[in-house]
Design a protein that fits this description.
Layout: H1 2-7, H2 14-29, H3 47-53, E1 76-80, E2 89-92, E3 101-102, E4 109-116, H4 123-133, E5 135-139, H5 150-156
Parallel strand pairs: 1-2, 1-4, 2-3, 4-5
Amino acid sequence: MVRVYLARGGGRNSWMHWWTRKIELDLAKRGARLYVAVWVKGDTDNVEADRLSRWVDQDDWVLAPGAVGQVGTWEVDRFADTRNALAPRFYALFRAPEAEGVDAFPMWWDDGVSLLVPPLYLWGKVVRHLWEGGGTAVAVVPRGDGQCWWPFLRAMQV
């Protein structure tokens, strides 16, 4: 319902206006923007929607095939997509038919051994989520001596 409201550019409903504004402010705090692309009949008229469909996540990375067997075993890949998932169960950034869910953060990670190979900018959030919610994980982590999350991660190390 909020998506339709946004696509139409707003309206008179004060409750919907409040929710729309809240979403916009939350996104702005995170440095994100909301794109509303509307499909139009005809190939040449779909410039905005076409641009969004061709977006490539530059922060997406995966373990090299030779390293997979060297770092442990896991049941759930928390930061994957259909192209790079290293477990039958995985969570994706965007909706995918094979994914168990979108966005790994809304739930605790205590439903199996997790593989954690997130984008670098998410490591602080990953460590905090693991610290607060528990769970067992195989984490492929860049050395972060100067990072605020590094001491917490070292304290959780087994």
